[in-house]
Amino acid sequence: MTPPYGKHPATLVRQERPFNAGPPPERMRADFLTPTGDFFVRNHGDVPEVDAEAFRLEVAGAVERPLALSLADLARFPRREVTATLQCAGNRRQELVERKPIPNELPWGLEAVSTARWSGVALADVLAAAGPTGEARHAALAGLDETERHGHRFHFGGSIPLDKALAPEVLLATGMNGAPLPPVHGAPLRLVVPGWIGARSVKWLASIRLQAEPSDNYFQRVAYRLFPAHVDAGNVVWEEGAMLGELPVNSIVTAPRAGARLPAGDVRVEGLALAGGGRDVARVEVSADGGRTWRVARLGERRERWAWRFWELKLELPAGRHELVVRAWDDAAQSQPADLEQVWNFKGYMNNAWHRVAVEVG
Amino acid sequence: MTPPYGKHPATLVRQERPFNAGPPPERMRADFLTPTGDFFVRNHGDVPEVDAEAFRLEVAGAVERPLALSLADLARFPRREVTATLQCAGNRRQELVERKPIPNELPWGLEAVSTARWSGVALADVLAAAGPTGEARHAALAGLDETERHGHRFHFGGSIPLDKALAPEVLLATGMNGAPLPPVHGAPLRLVVPGWIGARSVKWLASIRLQAEPSDNYFQRVAYRLFPAHVDAGNVVWEEGAMLGELPVNSIVTAPRAGARLPAGDVRVEGLALAGGGRDVARVEVSADGGRTWRVARLGERRERWAWRFWELKLELPAGRHELVVRAWDDAAQSQPADLEQVWNFKGYMNNAWHRVAVEVG
Fold first, then answer.
1. CA-CA distance, B189 to B141, in Å (whole number)?
2. Which domain holds residue A17?
């Protein structure tokens, strides 16, 4: 299969092969549920061709009853739905790149975050059928897509701790926004892990292995680790990096765009906020002076536990240059750090510094 | 009953009546479990005299079977234990007070945080016996201690959402560190809500009411709300403040003390870190130059899910003045804000700004 995979014409394509793309800011609030044609794509390999008839999901490792489930077998489990925002750990990397180059990583702007209604079956129900044994602590996941690193070719994978794997919101999804899951989003089967970095929502999922330790897949063992700001590619000790999991609280301005020229008077500022790990967004604050003074934005209702919240604020701005800034707070009184310096890491993950947008008025 | 309630002689007493006190920094790491004589006390009223024979815990509201349980009735539920750190929402208020006065609130230093092994029964088991009905969304809690605000005398109280009330870590505690719960810590019965602000761990707990809304007790409805930095006592809209719940990630230097004069050479810096809501501490970073450059501290093992972690770092410091700074990261890549300005709120809650300690070497 080849791009553009039915993506909306306005889609920002960061990379053709593997295909990596997402919606431009002006389409990010098209609807509370991101239209499937806009939903961001983060792939590490080509979209695999999967024979739905022959497809089997293997459940193995520390289980009483290893399983090899066809799609028909999976369809016999109770049907579940969850509305969840997925966000790539590398979202907003572009801002870090402007500070210092980050080689070999995609320079995501704001677009690697989207929300969909997922349907399928609960991973917990399938794991219950397999019967986890006492040694099971992590669910190691592997997809059918292939990638290459340092001369080795292997399947994309990763893992989540067993307690998250057993949580009711984690789905083996076959549907997206009321239609069958498209190939570019992981058909015939993807995991959806609400509240966690997108990398754990493994697409083209074909293997689940319960085990005592996290997956030794490259994307768990080496990539998707968070290092301190003073660590660089040259002085890294991989074990010192923390494996990424839940997302931190984050927020962005989707309108106006950076560099916009606006007429003087009322300016409607709008954007998104997202709290990680099932927490709620408690408050969104907007500054029109680079972060010196703040006002509370109008926060849209919490429609779904695992999804983003929209916010907006009308500001009256005099002529001149203004730096609009947004920061959100989660319900644990946790907010975003002011400076890129604090969140800097040489892989460019988890940028949740205050989001700044410079505009010109008048 | 009257102070000092068997407290360690070094205890810092912030207020005699009601009694409010905690351990000085040099005793905060006396052991992984805070000795009961050191454990901080945050009381809003006098310690009530409770007749253990006559005592009943009422469970009422949206339940199938209202209960009035004696201590003997409670002892028939399965015995549970949890090691949990409790922290007052007002801990580290002193640093905020130095920036701007905060009237009518205790100027806690670092001492309103402690860890104990709690024993008792699971609140979930007791609620299951009562049978929550479909309307139940919050567990409203009330203690036997009395306080006065604005001319009204009432019992201390608050609430937690039902999903937290049903979580296995939430205990109705009758024991602390292997001994009966002392009166000043809530005997005969206190709730222990790990990962949440201390105020929800209601002492002398006598009433649990399941209901659709949070408690309308003053300490839920009015106090323990987090307001933006620009809100002051004069312009407050209570509903705009977010009710506090889970704790944010936080860390402090316990040694050396602020203002210490140290000999030149190796300095051992040590302290505590705590992640809220069951999250883990992923990393602790220490700066010896006010936050310009950072080093990773040695983090003690995660001995208990709901407890703090100790950390330490040996630094070689040349003669002169140094500002030691600590900041922790939780496992959702969430860290502490650099400045008190960001966490400022006129009630002085939830200060988790970088902790700074100025020392003089040589």
1. 12
2. 12-243
Mean pLDDT taken over chain A: 96
Q: Both A268 and A316 in a single domain?
A: yes
Residue A125 has a CB neighbour count (10 Å cut-off) of 16
* Whether residues A199 and A260 fall in one domain: no
Q: What are phi and psi of B124, to 5 degrees?
A: -60, -40
Question: What was the pLDDT predicted at A297?
Answer: 97
Strands, sheet with A265-274, edge to edge from the N-terminal-most edge strand: A250-255, A265-274, A309-317, A298-299
Residue A298 located in a structural domain: yes
pLDDT tens-digit readout, A213-264: 999 999 999 999 999 999 998 888 877 799 999 999 999 999 999 999 999 8
In this complex, the residue of A228, A242, A279 whose CB is nearest that of residue B331 is A242
Q: Is residue B83 part of a domain?
A: yes
pLDDT at A1 over 70: no
Q: Do A332 and B293 touch (CB under 8 A)?
A: no
pLDDT above 90 (res A204): yes
pLDDT of residue B4: 82
Task: Kindly determine whether residue B294 and residue A229, on different chains, have CB atoms separated by under 8 Å.
Answer: yes
| Residue that finishes a domain, picked among B191, B208, B243 | B243
Q: Label the pairing between strands A295-296 and A281-287.
A: antiparallel
Last residue in a domain, options B187, B210, B243: B243
Looking at the fold, whether B181 and B136 belong to one and the same domain comes out as yes
Q: With an 8 Å Cβ cutoff, are A350 and B333 in contact?
A: yes
Same domain, A292 and A156: no
Distance (Å) from the alpha carbon of B44 to chain A's nearest alpha carbon: 23
Question: pLDDT tens-digit profile of A39-53?
Answer: 999 999 999 999 999
Going by pLDDT thresholds of 50, 70 and 90, the confidence category of residue A306 is very high
**Residue of A118, A102, A236 lying closest to A180 (CA atoms):** A118
Residues B62 and B204 in one domain: yes
The identity of residue A32, as a single letter, is F
pLDDT digits (tens, 9 = 90+) for A106-159: 999 999 999 999 999 999 999 999 999 999 999 999 999 999 988 999 999 999
| Tens digits of residue pLDDT in A51-96 | 999 999 999 999 999 999 999 999 999 999 999 999 999 999 999 9
**Spans in chain B with pLDDT lower than 50:** none
Subunit contact B332:A277, Cβ cutoff 8 A: yes
E strand or H helix at A324, and its extent? strand A320-330
- Residues 276 to 335 of A: which have CB under 8 A from any B CB? 276-277, 279, 282-283, 285, 293-296, 329, 331-335
Residues A109 and A157 in one domain: yes
Number of domains composing chain B: 2
The verdict on pTM exceeding 0.90 is yes
CATH number assigned to the domain comprising residue B143 = 3.90.420.10
Q: How far apart are CA A111 and CA A88, in angstroms?
A: 9
Q: What's the CATH code of the domain at B344?
A: 2.60.40.650
Contact A179, A118 (CB under 8 A): no
Same domain, A97 and A120: yes
- Mutation site for A-interface testing, chosen from B334, B339, B340, B349 by largest number of A Cβ within 10 Å: B334
Rounded to 5 degrees, φ, ψ at A242 are: -85, 130
Same domain, B171 and B258: no
